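Researcher: Here's a chain I'd like modeled. Treat it as a single chain, no partners, no ligands.
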Amino acid sequence: MKVVIRTKTNLSATLLSGFLMVMICSSTAHAWWNSEWTMRKKVTIDLKSAGISEPVGAAPVLIRLHDGDFQFAAAKDDGSDLRFVAADDKTPLAYHIEKYDALMSEAFVWVKVPDLKPGEQTSIWLYYGNQGPKASKADDTKGSYDSETALVYHFSEGGSPPNDFTMSGNNAQNAGTRVEGSLIGGGVRFDGKSTIVIPASASLAWTDASMTWSACLKPTALQPRAIIFSRRDEATSFVIGVDNGVPFVEVNGQRSAAGTPMAVNSWHPVAVVAAGAKITLYLDGEPYGGLNTPLPALNGPAFIGGEGPQAAAGTIGFVGELDELQVSKVARSPAFVKLSAIVQGGGDKAAKLLTLGPDEQPAGVMTWLSGGTFGVIVKSLTMDGWVVICILGVMAVLSWFVMVNKVSYLNGISKGNALFMKEWKHVAADLTVLDDADAEHFKSLGGRVDKAGLKAMRNASVYRIYHIGAEEIRHRLAADKSVGTGGRKGLAGRSIHAIRAALDGGVVRETQKINRLIVLLTICISGGPFLGLLGTVVGVMITFAAVAAAGEVNVNAIAPGIAAALLATVAGLAVAIPSLFGYNYILSRVKDAKDDMHIFIDEFVTKMAEFYQEPKSRAGTD
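Model: Modeled as a single isolated chain. Structure tokens:
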């Protein structure tokens, strides 16, 4: 029996300590970057799932938002309250919004993520949900790319020439035909005749044989030798194109080998990386072909969608759509190229690479206490108030522990009593099991209860009373060899009185077990409000003393102190009220348990006196 009680006590203590640990951890788990932002979600970038086994370093990552993973109604209509913070929840990250449409629940945001490592998950935080004036637009278009990125066109300017989103300022000279709803926001369409001119600049000069060019292509027709990007200077030329669906790179008339053609009317990320004496062509993030030749030195204008005035014979312009043109002054690593292709291409690979976690809100205890009107009250608490509230907190934990423990204990008694009384009705008709020589026979109520039932009945107070009575009967029948009415062994009147006394003693011990620790509830009920009142009175005294020392009466100075002082009284009532309800409930359950024991004793003694009648020869002498 002791083992069962100890197990329940330890379980209750574990639950309570676990609850406290959750409350403490929730207040200290992960700091909230800024309390003015009410929502955040974790963004996880997993290079391992994308099959990237080499370091990437810092890279711009596209985050797609839609109504399935982002609450547009909780953010500002223009997305100006979006903020991105590093995993330490302290360092803001540079980002810029390419498109934000709250009505259509769609957004494309580029974030510069630092130090992406292979085989690891990199996490950043997306904050939103600040409707206040401080949440003005803070995107950093120029800071979203490193200094080696010379040109980035999103083609999201409408009828204006494409704008360069890097610090280099390589804006296009003329506008193309813009397409709404392209691969990523807006795009540009080419009809085979029109081109977009990129003026020459120092940042676009190719002098050290290192360069990275990338774009997303959607050919809408199979064309022979269609030019996507070209740059010429007299006899020197650099061309990127598509020949009947086969992408190629061509330097001074030398073209890369043909591979599997691209499907028409589908998007494909294409990249060209020049490093030293080698130029590599990538399709969908994977190596596709290349040339064993260095990048030619060129410093003239470049053309998108075709060639300029120095076009070679037999060339035609590209027919299709183009999006996300980027040019870097360095040779990007294969891992960088693959990452860019995945995040720009979208689909299942992008969904595995980048996942958005569920929305989180500042639900920690300390965060809740530090915000709003309640936060003002808490910040105004004096030391004596904190001491009183901490004591009341301990009392609250103790009261809940006692209530949980006692209710669990009484539930076990109630179930055990019901099971025992069900079997006792059969045993009461014939008490011969009580004088059986085998002690286990009467413990199992004449074999009616199996081991599982006995285990459940050990929690029953009436079963323990029955055990005491049965032991007393066996002991006294063994000592008294006389035979009563009907040829059975009989019990003298003094023996029955002695057994009754033993049963009453068992009731007292069971009642003591049931009432153990309940006194703590009465202490919480009566002491909680008085402790709270003490904290309030002392807090009010300190508040008025501070006002007197300051020499001026200011409602704004008095009100927080009074409100904080009253918090102690509220805490005292918060301890006492649940304890009062719990105490009254437990008291009614204790009364039921005691009534069950007294009723059983009366029935047991009556049945015993009838069954084990005193011998007639001795009835007159006792």
